[in-house]
Records
---
Amino acid sequence: MARSLATADDATTEILGEGDFVQLIDPDGTRVPNPRFDPWVEDVTDEQLVDLLEDMVVIRRIDTEATALQRQGELGLWPPLLGQEAAQIGSARALRSDDFIFPSYRENGVAYCRGVDYGDLLRIWRGQAHGGWDPHSINMAIPAVIIGAQSLHAVGYAMGIKREGDDTVAIAYFGDGATSQGDVNEAMVFAASFHVPVVFFCQNNQWAISEPVALQAKKHISDRSPGFGIPSLRVDGNDVLAVMAATRIATDRARSGEGPTFIEAVTYRMGPHTTSDDPTRYRTADEVAEWAAKDPISRLERLLESRGALSDEVRTRVDAKADAVAAELRNAVITMPEPAALSVFDHVYAEQNPWIERQRAQYAAYLESVEGGE
Amino acid sequence: MTSTVTEAAVAADTATTTLTLSKAINSGLRRALADDDRVVIMGEDVGTLGGVFRVTDGLQAEFGKDRVIDTPLAESGIIGTAVGLAYRGYRPVCEIQFDGFIYPGFDQIVAQVAKLHYRSGGTVSMPITIRVPFGGGIGAVEHHSESPEGYFTHTSGLRVVSCSNPQDAHTMIRQAIASDDPVLFFEPKRRYWTKGDVTENLTNALPLHRARVAREGTDVTLVTYGPLVMTALDAASAAADEGVSIEVIDLRSLSPLDMDTVTASVRKTGRVVITHEAQLNGGVGAELAASITERCFHWLEAAPARVTGFDTPYPPAALEEHFLPDLDRMLDAVDRVMGRENSLSGWSE
């Protein structure tokens, strides 16, 4: 049953969580009971927690391998996600495969969950493509480098979902810096007015290159969306279970016609903004150490250990998986063929364009003359 | 052999009515909405009000609030959500209320709409039409009379077109919506009330990228588009009285430019004047003058001349008659390329 875009009068701005900050696994690996959130993850077995651990270990390994490839000159640039594994895995694993993701450029862990081909993931950072994959094949848009622009795309996509009466969800990923952008704020206006099935997933990793989050927001980022008529959740972004619960709440609201939800996942960018950045110029080692103690992988390992669910066999299996992915990824990068010269003209337009075709023909003739002259 | 029934259907489909330019766009939008469920119209005041120029009049009542969408007042939001709808398979038609209001949406147009097909390696197309009432001559307050087309002709990935008469307005808006590429559709707002014959389904309609010879001539080629086509035709009539034969070319498409049509004309006449309301520096006329010179150098009897708005901001309404190219300034340039001594300006020196 299609829902009318015009119906937008039943929005609630009620904050869903009890208290300011939802945490289900503390940094020591202790499971923290939460009556409001526990029901959303009570089906998650220890085996599934091990799967989430494996995901986080694998994407950390992807991240480490890609950073190494950049240092070795095989990639031009890489935006590390180190420290944000729980935020990306907890949210991505809460989605259905037919939900549509609009990422920024750092959601490489989310892309891994979508089953992206490693060559497709890395060709962007090797300078061979702007996008890497067919968005319709994995229901995930290509990366958006313009900060916050993708939030509007997610809302527009959700307008389409709503019109068709589909029960899929659009989710926009962005960071704390993006919340200062007009586009993110316009996205919230449109999402609230049209009451569409969209999730705004903000990874507050504390830093927008060198600018601290305090420069973007004087209050919690999650405090902003209720003013737009969009309820928000503020969760420990280094707690994979809390992130999963929050994302399930948000997607359930979207699927049942309750409109948009905003999630602030409080996390930390342990690495540089990109491999070109030097974070020692703007933040202290003490701050980094403080966040290292809240590591998302360590705390899940401690929880599983306390439950006797992390045997040596499991550890070996997880490490082997990470090794295999890293080897496959490296191989995909170093064997990647160079693009053909004339492909610079490909796909400027969907239809034949005489202006572009003329330049293609002229450049082809030029190349031929140069090569012929050698 | 065609049957009687088919002939009757063709006759109905090719029936001609007299419409204003705004009504011709309206009927084109209506046909596009009726023909394709993926077409949606979105913009400020386009629904209940029918647009400030009434171009979308009656469409929301006919097709519903989910097809003709009144949006919040945010141009980036309009374009950005259209991008998301296009990702979902829709063909959005966005209205930017006035030329001077397009700049908040500039990033989404240039960085997203224009580039997504390229950025995605051809896997995502952006069949978005962005309608923009443009140009001056209506005595409006600031930001309501601008000609920003040059920003978009400079942007790869966009098609940029402008109509000058009701028939083209109707045909071209439907072609723009049917295009799998994004189209900036510039509507000459001071010609919205111009009437003309409109046949809904022309059997011999030009492709969207082709220019049109609006009047044939032999002495000088006068190249223009949008609101100045009518002025150029008036200039050609006046020149004919003085024995000068002007060929008027209505470009229709500003990106890509139909240089085949322009080149054929200039090689015939050997003289060319280019005119548009937009500012001179870096404008469409600059690309035209350069491309004509490249292609017609040995045929030219005089340097190409340009008659444009000045390199000033669009002036207050009381001064706009000085800013806007008119018949006399066009004919002055014609005199110049004809080598006539009564040319006043000598700007080419």
---
Amino acid sequence: MAPIPQLLIGIGAISAVTTVLAIIMVIADATIANYGDVQIRINDEKEVTVEGGRPLLSSLMEEKIFIPSACGGRGSCGLCKVQVTSDIGDYLPTELPWISDEEKTENIRLSCQLKLKKDISIQIPEELFNVREYECEVASIVDLTYDIKQVILRLKEPAEINFKAGQYIQFQVPEYELTSESVYRAYSMASQPSRHNEVELEVRLIPNGICTTYVFEHLKEGDTVTINGPYGDFHLRETDARIIFIAGGSGNAPVKSILYNMLENNNSREALYFFGARAVRDLFLVDEMKELENKLSNFKYIPALSEPLPEENWKGETGLITEVLDRHIDSGENTEAYLCGSPGMIDAAVAVLTKNGIPEDKIYYDKFA
Amino acid sequence: MKQTVQMREIQDKMKPGVITRDGFLGTDSRNLIDILIEDDAKVKRINLTHGQIAGRMQELREAGKRGLGDFISVAPHFEVRVDMVRGKLPCPFGHPGLIQKTNIQVRNLEKNREIAFTDMHIHIIAEHGFYEGKGSPYRLEVRDLIEILEIELPEE
């Protein structure tokens, strides 16, 4: 039997050699490897040629094909999924946490993690071909509350956008003190689709948030910004069911878009809008919503405060929005619900809605819009 | 102190752009092992454990979750907001699974002080005694955590 010191030296030597080899492979891949040009075949109808060795997500973006992504390609949001129909090898460990068993059978992959080393065929939703990059001018910035701003962007090139009420865009934040590279963040459009030449956003300040800090501290009227979109499957379904909207904070944006779209289309479906805030100072656009109650015959706006201040003399609904919701819903029959807010709010609201008889497949939400 | 290859690999994962844009180390050029030893000593000197500190952070996080993304009052004089955002991150120390990106803001109204941390902080403090490197925008000071979160110190 080998003495223990010799054994340790042996293990140490093997570890050192393995580490050195791994480092050499990484350096070689980054500096020596040349994959040449690579073809990306999309939906069996479009083909683009890109430089090999780079991630699929950014390669597609350079070709103006935008796959939604919220983390800048770091594999931490799990959004940028595409179906790969050619052989590109096994899943990477960085992809696996985001891929369900069902998705594995369809070879759904995270496009930010796939480095293009050979030709590839992919399938993406057709609607992504409608996604464009837009250069815009900041037309106005208005404080809605102390921590929510309304930003209106006037489209310059292209000058018009087509979207469904409830969808979102990605806002490009340029390099500045909080980020050494440009990044994208998703925001729902508060404007309705008929406003083809502008996009209205509601941006809530997040401490140290890269995009929100940029909007609150740097963005000025007249600035030029870049967005891309539209994205998302959050839109009003064409049925005659009663509608329940639930939102908090800047989650108001897609609901506002849908409501104005309903108004313009003379949609008289019964609709209740539960809007949760903490105190009066967190409410915004209340007069506008009350005015909509007069214009939309079957619409009712129900703002609710979880902790109103005594001096605010609040006479409306109080309690968490889920508690207020529970008090108002007596039946889930022929009802659809549309939710936009934090994941915590959405999970709690879904529990209340299903308890009251609304099936999960009639509850639509965009947790992070 | 000289650190192991394994520790050096962990430190590499903490650099900017690997797991998070800013990384975990800030301007701290020390070996990870030295960062851990220094913070561990600070906690031991006051007879606390990293688990106790993380436990208090978790307690306030759970209480703040009731606010559904908004600030909510938490007895006796705190306001807490728990805000989850899209995405999950791996632990730089290699723990299996992913940690939800969650921002937690705690305001101590009596002391008029505020602190922000994440689910990742709760994990890396509880499991690894790591408070991030000096100069990191997300570095947490043990003293701030004790004072703002009012973590009770054991009697001598």
